[in-house]
Amino acid sequence: MTTNHETQPTRGVQLPEQVARQLTHAIHTGEMRPGERLPTEAALGERYDISRSVVREAISMLRNAGLVTSRRGSGSFVAEVPTVALRLAIPDPSLQSVIRLLELRRALEVEAARLAAQRRTPSQLRRIRNAMADIDEAVEVGADGVDQDMAFHRTIAEASNNTHFTAIIDFYNRFLHHAITVTRTNESLRDTFMAQVIEEHQAIVDAIAQGDEEAAAQAAGRHLEHAEWRLRQAPTDLLERVEDTGANTSV
Amino acid sequence: MTTNHETQPTRGVQLPEQVARQLTHAIHTGEMRPGERLPTEAALGERYDISRSVVREAISMLRNAGLVTSRRGSGSFVAEVPTVALRLAIPDPSLQSVIRLLELRRALEVEAARLAAQRRTPSQLRRIRNAMADIDEAVEVGADGVDQDMAFHRTIAEASNNTHFTAIIDFYNRFLHHAITVTRTNESLRDTFMAQVIEEHQAIVDAIAQGDEEAAAQAAGRHLEHAEWRLRQAPTDLLERVEDTGANTSV
DNA sequence: ATTTATAATGTTGTCTGACAAATCTATCAG
DNA sequence: CTGATAGATTTGTCAGACAACATTATAAAT
Fold it and tell me: Which of A35, A120, A249, B21 is the most buried (most CB within 10 A)?
């Protein structure tokens, strides 16, 4: 059995990848529909004239990419909601990196605020207001309020009713956790900073409540602009101090 | 050899995933530094008391996640730039979806333009200008100019000197290809539209060239705002027509 | 005839052993 | 000290087997 009938993989690249590509293509083009069962590993091995190990690694890649799910004893199936994977470098915790993340936050959250002002439902508005209140509550109890701060901005992203924003923000959250810890730690160092933050949050919420797109976008932009400014005023040893708290145990 | 010394994986979940998690954790915490070599597959198998197959699948997952790279005959190494994967649902090609992508583009490209105006190097500015010229050239030759349009916006993202923007834009490019084909097909239907687009592009470049952040951001915002407006003016059968061209053959 | 156990079969998960291909290391010649 | 060669190491692939689970077919019972 040395013949390659059907479609033979082009040489050069790794074997599993070649098979994975063909299957991926078949899924993306809709040739294999969501929920449909893939050929068995043995069948695929015979089709491409490769061993089961290679087939398994290929399927492993698809599974990892969220394109298929495997059930022992049953088979592998095309996922109901096929996904693609975006691979991103893990940001280091330097000040430079934190600022780069702030820039991304600005891009996303300014627009999210604009869309939220335009589209938020009453219940979404309520959730946003609750989230803002939660921050103050947490701070009064003595917590750092990082989780609440993140939740607050997440509710706004949700209110944009555009899944792209929430998906990306959710993804970056684990790194934002560190970044926000840094900014909030910094802001808590001076009372004036804390007051500013509360004020800025309030401005965003007010604009969203009134449905004033432009005001919401500007308020969000100002908030993150000031956050960056406040961060640059921070003592130089701030990052090390936050590092030591071990607060960024997420991931 | 039936004992699990060291750290034994908790039962229940699939074996390879358990091992993958432990290794992932070690990498994320910096316990294993970038560039460092992993233990051999045989060694890992012995440590966790599992067969090489399982170890290989675990490493395959890490490789797939961009955390390690393997070199035959040499070993597996922690990637120099460890990454994490963001999995997103593949957007459908409806008008609604195209507009959602436009909103994301606006968020990213407005801010990218602002940063580009602030930080672009002379050579980056040159590349942006070339990219803009390429669009006109392609159109004159009779091409649709989609690839050139995408490249143009990509060079601006590059000039922002923030890798987050380029990473996300690169990722969404495969879907933007379809979206931009739609918008450009639409724009090419009326001469006035085409003229507008050229004008708007020019405005962005001018602002970036002069280092005027605010103007660059506004120009980019206007461009995408108008793109959405133009799209909404499009004939209702536009999407189907684009579909038929088969231009979106990219994966 | 329908339902319920039971057996047979099919499929993925894991184990074991082997060899090929590429790389690394140590030895030796000059 | 340099360079070539031989050996050892390590990942990639193959082959076959069994275990764990799922599905299907068969038989039994009411």
Answer: A120
